[in-house]
From TrEMBL:
Naturally occurring in which organism (per UniProt): Tetracentron sinense
Catalyzed chemical reaction(s): UMP + ATP = UDP + ADP
PROSITE patterns: ADENYLATE_KINASE
Enzyme class: transferase
Lineage start: Eukaryota, Viridiplantae, Streptophyta, Embryophyta, Tracheophyta
Residues spanning the signal sequence: none
GO biological processes: 'de novo' pyrimidine nucleobase biosynthetic process; pyrimidine nucleotide biosynthetic process
Family: Belongs to the adenylate kinase family.
Keywords in alphabetical order: ATP-binding, Cytoplasm, Kinase, Nucleotide-binding, Nucleus, Pyrimidine biosynthesis, Transferase
Source organism, top-level taxon: Eukaryota
Keyword Lipoprotein: no
Protein name as annotated: adenylate kinase
EC number: 2.7.4.3
Amino acid sequence: MWKRAISPSTLLSSPKSSFLNQANGLGVLNLFGLMLSGGPGSGKGTQCVKIVETFGFTHFSAGDLLRREISSNSENGAVILDTIKEGRIVPSEVTVKLIQRAIESSENYKFLIDGFPRSEENRIAFEQIMGVEPNIVLFFDCPEEEMVKRVLSRNQGRVDDNLDTIKKRLKVFAALNLPVINYYSEKGKVHKINAVGTEDEIFEQVHPVFAAYDV
């Protein structure tokens, strides 16, 4: 499991102290972590909903957290917006801190992180800042043409839902994500999912991954 050390003073002052004490009573927060990886349009978000409903995970989408920060009209949000418009990846530290804030505001011990890390820099920053690594990494493998078609057809009004930007994002994803997948593959944590098919057909591949875990 993910494990993060919590000092006694943090336990006493934290609004989650009651939950933490009930969970372990030893000043250590035991987390079960799941990360989902796949290009834009690979269907991660849809499968996240099914995983949450079936296995009781709390879902954090890196993209959703970034967009929420943008909508807050903060200075940090403005920088994030400019970065996305240019088809670049938001600095790792910014995303990790948004994820950290979301985790600390939840009382669940099972976390599903969607769309992060997408590079070795992301991964290293996450593990250094959070002091944890995932139990499971699901990699949704989807052909580029299928991902482009899905993104262009979803019509969500996002600034990055246009052909030029989506192709830039796919190139960035392909160049940076493979080392992360390889790293976690060597640790035996990656489960590759064929992301072509209906939602139910894809989930039929996802469901057995959890059979070996008591979550």
